[in-house]
Design a protein that fits this description.
The structure is a homodimer of 215-residue chains.
Chain A (H helix, E strand, L loop, with lengths): L3 H4 L6 H21 L5 H8 L3 H7 L3 H25 L3 H19 L2 H8 L7 H20 L10 H16 L4 H16 L25
Helix pairs in contact in A: 2-3, 2-5, 3-4, 5-6, 5-8, 6-8, 6-9, 6-10, 9-10
Chain lengths: 215, 215
């Protein structure tokens, strides 16, 4: 389970909190660009903080990488919560799909590299199950509201994420634009209006959604 | 340019022709399953021909691999010709998309492995340019006939093939079913009926269509 929130002392001053957020954001970008081997000094330099400040907040590389991942993982699971909170389930569904695919386009292999390097750093089981339950409920509501075609199955999210992965993997520069256009086409296809018959669902489960295999 | 037809003597007897087709088909399946290192003896065994017969037809492994690729490449380019011959351009367009994606699902990395192993075996430039011109013309006609939405651009085929590649790469067993369902969704999205606005096209070219990078 993500441990990010518990690591930030409740009384952390605003500028310290700002520093922490900036370090995590900069580290996130560097890991995505150059892999997990980026030196701590490079993170400090780009974040505009001293190396001592960086090590005070994150005593080890692992603690920084884990924090970055926890942040991202929380953002991913909160996408479903936000969508469920939308009074228009179909609008919530579309927004969730757009956000998940945009995150995947920005990920650039970070999640896979993190899990390979630190397989036991976080217990993500519970959060993953919660996200899958949430998306299944979101699907049900969007179908009940008439926006989402009735033959959409939750496993089609895995289809979409794998398809988006094919685009993200193949074209570094064009990845975000290509991903947005693919998602645009697919949301048009998911709409209940004038839906045409589809081939049957593929036997896929939802695990690719979070870039994780079952453990 | 594919040289397959010129290698089959005009007067080749029907059973010899049948043997040749069977060998190529069996080799195709074995290369896809197990890579290009499959021994010639394994090809002969599965094709039900003697090893001497196999070597009489294909004196080297390279000659067999090249023939398999030429066959497949010709099948791929003829997809566009068949689609252009359909009196209903939108139906032709849909059939071409379905066939290209099914071929990609069946390819299992064979094309990439072939090009890596024998980069100079075939001059595919001319055929590739012809296929791209043909698909561009098919797009124009399907739009003029009102079936294909007007904001579809030929580069969206690259998008689709990359997306399909993400599915094909990730799930060996479910690949064909997943690919068919993705294509079903995307053809629904490509339809001109009730098309909704899309994000702008990504700067992709058509080269992934044939699994080739420009040379």
């Amino acid at each position: 389970m993500p441990t990010a929130p518990s690591r930030i002392p409740a009384g952390l001053r605003a500028d310290a909190r700002h520093n922490r957020d900036r370090i995590v954001q900069v580290a996130r970008g560097l890991f995505a660009e150059r892999g997990l081997d980026v030196p701590m000094a490079a993170v400090a330099r780009r974040a505009g903080v001293g190396i001592a400040t960086l090590y005070r907040r994150f005593p080890t590389k692992e603690s920084l990488v884990t924090e970055v991942f926890a942040d991202q993982f929380q953002a991913c699971t909160s996408v479903v919560d936000e969508a469920l909170a939308d009074p228009d389930p179909w609008r919530g569904f579309c927004a969730a799909i757009e956000k998940v695919c945009a995150m995947q386009a920005a990920d650039r292999g970070f999640t896979a590299a993190f899990i390979a390097a630190y397989p036991d750093a976080l217990d993500v089981e519970r959060e993953r199950a919660r996200a899958i339950d949430g998306f299944t409920e979101l699907t049900r509501r969007a179908q009940a509201a008439g926006g989402l075609r009735p033959d959409f199955v939750p496993g089609d999210l895995a289809l979409l994420v794998m398809a988006n992965g094919g685009i993200v993997a193949k074209s570094a520069e064009a990845a975000r634009a290509a991903s947005r256009r693919l998602v645009g086409y697919l949301l048009a296809a998911f709409s209940a209006e004038h839906a045409r018959p589809l081939p049957p669902p593929a036997p896929l489960d939802l695990d690719p959604m979070l870039g994780l295999s079952p453990r």
